[in-house]
Design a protein that fits this description.
This protein has about 70 residues and is α+β, with helices and mostly antiparallel strands. It is built from two helices and four strands; from the N terminus they run βαββαβ. InterPro entries: Se/S_carrier-like (IPR021778).
Length: about 70
Amino acid sequence: MHRTILTFQNTRNVIKADQLLAHHGIRARIIPVPEHISSECGMCIETTPENTLAIQSLLTENHVQFTIQQW
């Protein structure tokens, strides 16, 4: 199963992104950053690849900086 991981520079952006996604009905969850992924923040958001475009639009519109990685 492929997953999409969103990484952030700080915890504040993780929480803001999680709240935005929940408010818009996009299924996602906060998890610790996997060991093979580098991040400045120890938390990330995991979701399915099908949500990637909607998430990119939503977070960009709300000025939340993030990086998307597939695994």
